[in-house]
């Protein structure tokens, strides 16, 4: 364990991971939600994904949404891509930061992108080169870093091999993702302790789902292990369409509550985040799993 950081950056993933399993909502509703999230003060936001509309119809309007992002200043927007073509499309749409997700498990990789993990990893250098040729930053996210819904527990060495491949390709950032919400604090600490020596000064982030109730504890374990970048969504919106049973990112308001009260600074306003979670709930038309959305702050109620 390291000393706790003074500051943690939170990237909101509501617009991509949050909406990808939902029935598609109109662009106007997305922009209303985006405005509510922007009002929280968050400085990083995953805006959409440039992937096949037939696979993720909720994000079929990626280019149209990207055309509206210039209205929101002070936020670094990124988009997820699953192929070199997706990277080119995202860059052509004006994104200055992209994320390439590579699953550490073959079962999930084939369900997600139709390729084995090794085949997907072979595209890392090309995607990094495409991005860097356009002065765009690229983050490699290692999905199913702890478990796969098809293959079971992920061999940690598979994660380390992908981290090494991304580092060798000069990716600008790295992240490990608990795609199906099975991680626990011990397993998070163990993996991150093995990842950090491989990446030098490359920033490391983490992405957790609260599917089995351990998402917040896992996020805390990541912070205690030295991670200073975490993903979250307002209301706990989201899940993976290619991972049966996976649902619910950790809720941004719950994470802000935990970190703020632990003396760790975040660039996000708690009340505004709860308000954004209410907008998200109205947008998708069903309840969301956030604890603070239900109970409120202990002081403000």
Task: Summarize this structure briefly.
By secondary structure, this protein is α/β, with parallel strands linked by helices. It has 13 helices and 10 strands.
Structural features, described:
- The structure is a single chain.
- It contains 13 helices and ten strands.
- The protein has 301 residues and is of the alpha/beta class.
- Strands 1-2-3-4-5-8-9-10 form an eight-stranded parallel beta barrel, surrounded by five helices.
- The longest helix is centred in the middle third of the chain and has 15 residues, at 185-199.
- α4 (84-92) packs parallel to α7 (124-133) and α8 (156-168) runs parallel beside α9.
- The two termini are 34 Å apart.
Key traits:
alpha/beta, single chain, two-stranded antiparallel sheet, 301 residues, 10 strands, TIM Barrel, 41% helix
According to CATH, the homologous superfamily is Aldolase class I
- Low-pLDDT regions: none
Major beta sheet, strand line-up = 1-2-3-4-5-8-9-10
Instruction: Give the overall shape, derived from the CA principal axes.
Output: globular
Secondary structure class reads: alpha/beta
Name the CATH architecture. Answer: Alpha-Beta Barrel
Query: What is the succession of H and E elements?
Result: EHHEHEHEHHHEEEHEHEHEHHH
What is the rounded Rg? 17 Å
Please, what is the average pLDDT? 95
State the helical fraction: 40-55%
């Amino acid at each position: 364990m390291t000393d706790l950081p003074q500051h943690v950056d939170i990237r909101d993933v509501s617009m991509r991971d949050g909406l990808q399993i939902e029935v598609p909502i109109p662009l106007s509703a997305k922009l209303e939600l985006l405005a509510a999230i922007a009002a929280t003060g968050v400085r990083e936001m995953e805006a959409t994904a440039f992937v096949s509309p037939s696979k993720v119809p909720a994000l079929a309007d990626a280019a149209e949404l990207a055309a509206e992002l210039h209205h929101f200043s002070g936020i670094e927007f990124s988009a997820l891509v699953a192929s070199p073509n997706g990277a080119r499309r995202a860059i052509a749409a004006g994104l200055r930061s992209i994320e390439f997700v590579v699953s550490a498990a073959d079962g999930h990789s084939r369900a997600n992108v139709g390729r084995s993990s090794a085949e997907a990893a072979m595209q890392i250098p090309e995607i990094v080169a495409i991005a860097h040729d356009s002065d765009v930053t690229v983050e490699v996210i290692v999905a199913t870093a702890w478990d796969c819904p098809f293959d079971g527990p992920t061999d940690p060495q598979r994660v380390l091999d992908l981290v090494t491949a991304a580092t060798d390709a000069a990716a600008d950032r790295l992240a490990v993702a608990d795609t199906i919400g099975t991680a626990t604090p011990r397993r998070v600490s163990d993996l991150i302790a093995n990842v950090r020596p491989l990446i030098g000064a490359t920033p490391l982030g983490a992405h957790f789902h609260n599917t089995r109730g351990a998402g917040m504890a896992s996020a805390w374990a990541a912070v205690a292990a030295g991670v200073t970048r975490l993903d979250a969504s307002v209301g706990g919106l989201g899940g993976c369409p290619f991972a049966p049973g996976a649902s619910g990112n950790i809720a941004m308001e719950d994470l802000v509550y935990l970190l703020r009260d632990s003396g760790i600074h975040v660039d996000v306003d708690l009340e505004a985040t709860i308000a954004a979670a209410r907008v998200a709930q109205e947008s998708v038309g069903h309840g969301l799993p956030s604890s603070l959305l239900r109970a409120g702050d202990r002081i403000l109620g």
